[in-house]
Amino acid sequence: MKIKVLKIVGVATLAILLVLTVFWFSLPLISQQRLGKELSQDLGVPSPAIIAHRGASHLAPESTAPAYKLARDIGADYLEADLQRTKDGVIVVFHDEALKRTSDIETVFPEKAEQPLSEFTYKELKQLDTGGWFNEKFPDQARDSYVGLNILTLDELIDIAESGNNNPGLYLETKFADKYPGIEKDIIEILERRGWIDGKPKFSDPERKVNDKLGVATVNVMERDSRLIFQSFYSHSIEEFNSLAPSVLRVTLISKDIEEKYGWENIIEETVATSDGIGPVGNLALPWRVNKVHKKGLIVHAYTINSPFQMRILHRSGVDGIFTDRPELALEVYDRTNQIELDKIFHNIGY
What we know:
CATH class: Alpha Beta
Protein name: Glycerophosphodiester phosphodiesterase family protein
GO molecular function, one term: phosphoric diester hydrolase activity
Oligomer: single chain
CATH architecture: Alpha-Beta Barrel
Order of helices and strands: HEHEEHHHEHEHHEHEHHEHEHEHH
Radius of gyration: 22 Å
Helix content: 40-55%
Domain GP-PDE: 48-334
Number of domains: 1
Structural class: alpha/beta
Organism: Proteinivorax tanatarense
């Protein structure tokens, strides 16, 4: 009997020690989450922020109208977009430097298929189908309505953001900024004209009842000063945005190669002067690194996060937001939505 009691006491003691150990090691993570949330609140940025990477690009062709309309109506906080400039000076939304991967350029302009986007006029780009490739690569997500989609301009992206029941912000990247001198000024001029900088965009307050019926989150980031965030891997581009539009938030992107070249601490020190946050590739966003960033007063938005496990782990590690191809999944993981009626949303947006 005595031995049995001792065993029970021993097991209970171990259990208590285990609970205390877990609690002890959880304290820094809880503290980081709290600090990150406070920093996000000070900037007016939702936390955790769900940033639709090239739109809802798991469900529709990346950087196209349906991808962004889906992300908007599902309830993403921000629509993320890569910006480049055509040969005749039009700012367009496109990720790659070349056009082959996500268009039919090899059919339309076979002799120019290897050339960068910057060598094409806007009229030429409008002849390309930027949706058909998606049906071939992802047959489970294919839709006839994706065939014949066109490259979007920045103005058209703004139209999408402003025209739905939700009001997401825009998270804009200068892609290949070294190849486009002055692109920051071009972007800012468009955004100022549309009231997104030091003004007020055209939008109506969301109807929560409509969103509740669709099982989606209600978003009104557009009414905040944080409606717009600039991002770039290029420090000179971030500095230019800081100079031309200091009221707009800025995030410096960090790849694994950049971190290996310059070191985490050095990057943070250089970033503090011109940015409000950093955007590291997901496997760099370890708790102790996130903590160092937060202590410098910067927020952390990690990319590109598409699995529930990653989403939960990074949130626990103190990350303040994620870039994701799957905003519908992120909203579910972060308990911000019910069962989303995707078929109804597709019907509503005409795809």
